[in-house]
Amino acid sequence: MAEVDSQSAATKINRDILESYLHCRYKGYLNLTKQQGAKSDYETLLTEFRVEVKLKATNKILAQYPEHDVPQDISLTASLLKRGPLYVLNAIIEDDLMSLRFDGLKRMSGASKLGDFHYIPMLFHGGGQVGKQQKLLLELYSLYLSKIQGRPSDSGIIWHGREYKATKVRLNPNLSKIELLLQDLMEIGRSKSPPRLIVGDHCQTCEYHQRCHTQAVEEDNISLLKGIGVKEIKRLNRKGIFTVTQLSCTFLPRKKRKRANRYRTTRYFALQAMAIRDGKIYVFGTPHLPVAPTRIYVDLEGDPDRAFVYLLGVIIDDGGIEKQYHFWANNECEERLILQQFMQLITPYPQFNVFYYGSYEASFFRRMRKQSTHKTPVDKIISNSFNILSVLYSHIYFPTYTNGLKDIGTYLGCNWSEQDATGIQSVVWRRRWELTCDEVLKHKLITYNLEDIQALKKITETIYHIVTTGESKSGTLQLVHRKFEVARVENLGPQSSRREYGKATFVLHDFEQINKCAYFNYQREKVFLRTHKPLRRNWANKIRRPPKKDRVNKRIEIKCRKCPYCKGTALIRCHDEVHTKLAYDLKISDSGIRREVIECATTRHRCLKCSRAFLPRKYKRRDKHCHALKSWAIYQHVVHRTSFEQIEEMFRECFSLYVHSSELHMIKRLMAKRYWSTYRRIVRKILCGDLIHIDETQINLQRGKGYVWILANWEEVVYLYRPTREGDFLQKIFKEFKGVLISDFYSAYDSLPCEQQKCLVHLIRDLNHDLQHNPYDEEFKSLAGEFGRLLRVIVSTIDKYGLKRRHLNKHIADVDRFFHVVECQQYRSELAESYQKRLLKHRKSLFAFLRHDGIPWNNNSAEHAVHRFAYYRAISNGKMTESGLDDYLILLSIYQTCRFKGISFLKFLLSREQDIDRFIEQGVDKRKLSSCLELYPVGFTSNHPKRRGAPINRNLRFMDIRPSNDSLVNPTAEGYELPF
To answer: Which of 736, 625, 760, 639 lies closest to 688, judged by CA?
Structure first.
């Protein structure tokens, strides 16, 4: 190992090492330590193209400018650039660590140390497209160039492609990331151990491909699963998952949702790993394939850099009769001819399906459709085409590391004539053929294309076998030469020992019948009742016991003084027709609660003027339940979170009152309407204050989901329901708010036109969470430590003096000093860099409380209010409707406001007062907690014996009778509109 260290220390960083590092950190390490590898044909081809591009571009530049204006093959110094040559080609910068060769420099206007001009780097690239690596390499050149000319380059030029065109690329003027990349590369060279191996897309063309693949298989490296990203790998590594076998143990079959998204296409890498571990084909969900008498399998070969398809291979399976075709294009002009020949070939088949693998063929057909004058045949091909990879991605998990055609085809027994036959290698063969016109290379390409189609056909037939023979069960799939184990994920069952509630599923019908007879109620009513005499006697008494008549505590006679038809006052009461109804109430005092039954009596009235008979309106609209009973029920539901079913039982057991749960829902609606004006007063008072705490939380409803928003200050709380989390309505709320808004880091709050204080507790929780999951990130740990020390000193001052500006002003200088250090610091850690951006973005709103009196540094009031709602959500999630939730939030807002003000919610309800502040001013002890009869609410069903269940006129307003007089009040006259 010491030998490797000395060798790597002596190796200078050059362009090859930089390019390899930008593609793969592990490859950069291998190049730094001078490890040997076999270059692929594709890498060799790119090198040749790069030399060709360099030669053509150099000749083009020299043809336009004289040679003395274009120095070449020299060391790059400030004195050379001060002369102001138009171009500099093949220049080199060398120091103890770096030997960097510039392909070229171009002079541009703009002040620098050199004068009124500066230089931008040029790069010669053999590929046809410009990628991220080329841009990063230009930024590396810009970093070293800035040391000479005193400024970074704002752009760069890349010469690339077969046309040798020059593309101008905009560069990032902030070179801190590039400096971190260089530092990381140097540390890799000095490190005694190599970086973690991550297999990626670049490995196909890498010279160390075979070596890395062998090492990854030996390590059971999780990056062997193609498609899993680097961020996902790091996330799994933080959980201690490093191998494919470890990942396979994390898959748990999920319960089928009631509303499954049929368009969801998710690839579960844990299930892929389990398929590799078990050596089985796993089927997830229900795959669907089109059915037609003729199946056409298509595979294309093309050059992706030029967007040119030169070979179209076809296999037609018409009822078991197989025919093979191929169409070759010598140049790009013949590409359209390939499609025409293919359309002529499939014209005799009226019903067919075209199968292909991946999206390359689909994009080709769409591109040809735009260029074609006759679009109908192409449209028919597109409409009847099907991508086999889409089924594999969503439903079929073969025990292979990737979903590549070669990997799955090899697993199913397909073979390729050439060992190095890949899509990348076919590009090399085609370009070699274009230079030599060698028929051997053409034959290789046609053979390779045909073998790909055979593999596609084999995979498609296998999926058809899985769909048709193993649609509902697991088993063994018998193909021609091999047997494959197929298992459905649904048959695995939930991987949990926890007993689930609900109806059990039995395989045998006898077991199901036996389990049905084992239920408690069934045995008690059908079996034990026959053998147990006391149980039978009690049950018989329960059934035969006649209902008791309620003892009346108070009698009230209702009279009418005016005819409702002609408004006449000459009335006669017919005493021979007496009508009575019962109303129920609770008498609540300091010593206890007792039931009260009120009998309401009246007689039929007759008008002497119009000769019509009628019953008093107050009698017909008499409410069955009085205010104290309603208040007690709402108190139990809101304060103690008692369900309506439990409140129904409490009424029956404690007071011998039969109040059905549906009536309790009606009571909740009535009380919400009654106290709507109280709710509006709370909203107005919050918006007129100088401080608002805000937060939001999610709630699942019977249909869909919604969000509950909380606005609070020191004494008031209000809950608002919105169907989405979009914060557009907040603009209208805070349009005239002049105070400070305390919130979390949700982006919807950032655009509000008021001063804000971000909750520092939220930030501390996020910091602590990331510290727990990244214990070895020293940069992030240092940043979090500095922030913690700063905030701890400020909190100590608050504990000693309170939230007073004159004592907190002294910490403003410390805060500015902290942000200055954070802004100037360059972090290599992605996590530390993300928090650096977050701190600087919210710089003004993190410590706004230092400049105000009485402004807290956390969102305590809103979070506390969220907890009260979350307790209720735990028992009602997914059971509420929007209207029911609105009513509950009105009552919950009043309850929370009473708690914040230190008064009793129940006594406030019993007092019939609708202004909380007025209730506090009058005093609780002076209030008479009396009750009276309520009029029946408009919009609900009548309780009259002859009109039971008939709806009352919904156009009337909600009305009640106060104890002092008969005046009618209308608390909903303003409607359900909030004041914003």
So the answer is: 736
C-alpha to C-alpha distance for 486 and 462, rounded to whole angstroms: 11
d(CA 23, CA 206): 10
Gap between the Cα atoms of 263 and 521, Å rounded? 43
Q: Are 605 and 594 in contact (CB under 8 A)?
A: no
Burial 265-298, CB ≥16 within 10 A → b, else e = eeebbbbbbbbbbeebbbbbbebebeeeebbbbb
* Angstrom distance (rounded) from CA 727 to CA 448: 57
Q: Which of 966, 869, 886, 909 is nearest to 674 (CA)?
A: 909
> Model pTM?
0.63
| Domains of the chain, each with CATH number or no CATH | 2-190 (3.90.320), 220-254+263-286+472-494 (no CATH), 294-470 (3.30.420), 512-545 (no CATH), 555-674+951-980 (no CATH), 760-851 (no CATH)
Question: In angstroms, rounded to a whole number, what is the distance separating the alpha carbons of residues 537 and 821?
Answer: 84
Q: Are 678 and 901 in contact (CB under 8 A)?
A: no
For the chain, helix, strand, coil in percent to 5 are: 45, 20, 35
Q: Are 396 and 466 in contact (CB under 8 A)?
A: yes
How many Å separate Cα 449 from the centre of its chain?
41
290: CB partners within 8 A, 6+ apart: 353, 384, 386
User: Is residue 839 within 8 Å of residue 829, measured between CB atoms?
Assistant: no
Q: Are 803 and 848 in contact, with CB atoms under 8 Å apart?
A: no
- Element at 708 (helix H, strand E): strand 705-712
* Maximal CA-CA distance, the chain: 128
- Integer Cα distance of 127 and 133 in angstroms: 12
DSSP 823-856: HH----SHHHHHHHHHHHHTHHHHSGGGGSSS--
Sign of the torsion angle spanned by Cα atoms 233, 235, 241, 247: negative
Q: By the 8 A CB rule, do 367 and 381 touch?
A: no
CA distance 798 to 659: 52
Kind of pairing, strands 717-722 and 740-743?
A: unpaired
Residue 65 near residue 86, CB atoms below 8 Å: yes
**CB under 8 Å to 845, separation ≥6 — which residues?**
755, 756, 757, 758
Placement of tokens 């003395």 in the chain:
68
Nearest to 245 by CA among 106, 399, 74, 448: 399
Look up residue 848 and give its amino acid: A
Helix (H) or strand (E) holding 139: helix 132-149
Q: Which two tokens stand for residue 736?
A: 């005239």
The rounded distance, in Å, linking the Cα atoms of 904 and 915 is 14
Tell me how many degrees the CA angle 36-42-48 measures, rounded to the nearest 5. Answer: 95
Instruction: Going from the first residue of the chain to its last (980 residues), give the mean pLDDT of each consecutive group of 10, the final group possibly shorter.
Output: 41 82 84 81 83 87 82 86 87 82 88 89 84 86 87 88 83 81 80 82 81 87 87 82 88 60 68 90 86 91 85 89 90 88 89 90 88 84 91 90 90 86 86 88 91 92 81 56 78 54 66 76 68 65 60 86 85 76 88 89 86 86 88 93 91 89 92 93 91 92 90 92 88 88 90 90 90 84 92 91 90 93 86 90 92 89 90 86 92 93 92 91 56 47 40 31 30 47
Cα gap 299→449, rounded to integer Å = 7
Contact in structure between 740 and 837 (CB atoms under 8 Å) = no
Tell me the torsion sign for CA atoms 727, 729, 735, 737: negative
User: Which structure tokens are listed for 114?
Assistant: 């050199």
Residue 447: both structure tokens together: 């053979």
Q: How far apart are CA 882 and CA 330, in angstroms?
A: 67
| Pairwise CA distance, residues 97 & 123, whole Å | 22
DSSP for 906-960, please give it: HHHHHTT-S-HHHHHHH-STT--------BPPTTSB---TTSTTPBPPTTSPP--
